[in-house]
Amino acid sequence: MRVFIYPPNSLILADLVERFGHEPLVIMSEVGERVTNPDIDSPPLNITENDLKMGLRYVAIEAPSGIRGRMGLIGPLIDQSQAAIIIENAELNTFGCLGCARAANYIKYLVKKKEIPILTVQYPTDETSAKRMVKKIKGFLQNLA
Hints:
This protein is of the alpha/beta class and 145 residues long. The chain has a single domain, classed as Rossmann fold (3-Layer(aba) Sandwich), CATH 3.40.50. It contains seven helices and four strands; from the N terminus they run βαβαααβααβα. The chain has helices spanning 11-19, 27-35, 49-55, 65-80, 92-95, 101-113, 127-143; strands spanning 2-6, 23-25, 83-88, 118-122. The protein has a four-stranded parallel β-sheet with strand order 2-1-3-4, sandwiched between helices. α4 packs parallel to α6 (101-113). It starts with a strand and ends with a helix.
């Protein structure tokens, strides 16, 4: 099953999803394709004109190009998803900047609108809560058909 992960740049969640036999839908795979593609003149920007155009499918033309570009990468991942894992209150310094809070809320909205199985867990603050989170994710992934 194809599982969208939010924040979409979590290597740990991607690894967990793979360990349980599912395909993680993460931004790193999208960016990876772009930085190894000889058609892109300037990695580390990694966003092409086509990505910005694709972003228009999800946000208005008035949205900042950074959000359009981000949605050009993340939107298709959401479209492909058959399930999702959302980590709430993740520390930005752990996952990096993914845009403004409105973009983050919009991404979560699009996922919930799909009516797919979704697991929402809080970002762990200590070892005990981290173990609890992993246990919940493990159970969720094992129950996906």
